[in-house]
Structures are given as C-alpha cells and as structure tokens.
Amino acid sequence: KAAAAYNLGLLYLEGQTFPQDVKRAAELFRQASEAGNPEAQYALATLYKEGRGVEKNLVEAARLMRLAAMVDNLDAEVEYAIALFNGTGGAERNERLAATLLAKAARKGNPIAQNRTALTADEVLEQLVPAIAIPQASLVENNRVADSRSHPAHA
Predict the structure, then answer these.
(1) Which DSSP category does 131 fall into?
(2) Which of 26, 72, 78, 139 registers the highest number of CB atoms within 10 A of its CB?
(3) pLDDT (mean) for 56-75
C-alpha cells in the first residue's frame, strides 16, 4: 500500500496520467512515509525543504531526510550528509555523521558523495598539517636538482 501511494504521488507530482497537483502528491507521500517508505520520506522531505505543496519546514525536512538516509536511500544519505556537514536545511551540524554517510554513499558509487568525501579529506588535511605545506616552486626545484644528479647531462 505504501509503494502504491508513493507511485501515485509521483504521478500527481509530475502531472502524468493526472493533472499536476503537488498538494495531493504531498498527501500521498505523507501516507507512504508514515508507512515507512524511504522513497516517500525523501520525496516529502524535498517538498518540505522547497515549500512545494506543503508549508516550508526545514526541521521536518531534515527529520524525514534522516529517516530515509538511515534505511539506505542513497539520495537521502547524500543530501542529509551535506546538510549535517554544513549545519543547514534544518539539520544540526555533525561533521562526523556527515562523513560517515558520505563515505557510505561514495562506496555505493554516488559521484556527489565521492566528490564531497574528497573535499572533506582535503579540508581535514589542510587543518591538520598546515606546517608542512611546501611551496610548489620548491618542489619543482628539488625535483630538478635530484634529476640532474641521477641523470647527468650529456655534453
């Protein structure tokens, strides 16, 4: 029944088969969401986040996004993780949980999560080891000197 309500909600949301009715889609997503359908939880969270068909409510959006993320909805994992990392979208900032969710989504092949995971790792490295930052010119010069010692120029 939850899957049927979700699928019917999609038809109303997209205006396929029925005239587009975002409020009706939100009602159907709510029914499916309350029955535990993670796709409906994600869809309804998105509507709350954008204020489409429902009154904008970032706290409810984050709650629903979290529910969907915790049962492996890939899109919800990524979106909720980014909200956690930034402390936006109704989510309280939690970089550790954000990193865990992003890593999980990255392992599943999500390119956004893979990109964000790389950015997160770079940001951590920048914070942890600023003292070992070596100017690029020094690296190039050191490589040139080392190369000239191992491969003397032919006359």
Answers:
(1) G
(2) 78
(3) 95
Query: What pLDDT digit, counting tens, does each position of 24-42 carry?
Result: 999 999 999 999 999 999 9
Structure-block tokens of residue 60: 């409810």
* Residue 44: both structure tokens together: 């309804």
What is the CB neighbour count within 10 angstroms for residue 58? 17
Question: Which parts of the chain fold into alpha helices (H)?
Answer: 2-14, 22-34, 38-50, 58-70, 74-86, 95-107, 111-128, 136-150
- 53-58 contacts, C-beta under 8 A, 24 or more apart: 53/13, 53/22, 53/23, 53/24, 53/25, 53/26, 54/23, 54/26, 57/90, 58/89, 58/90
Which one-letter amino acid corresponds to residue 93? R
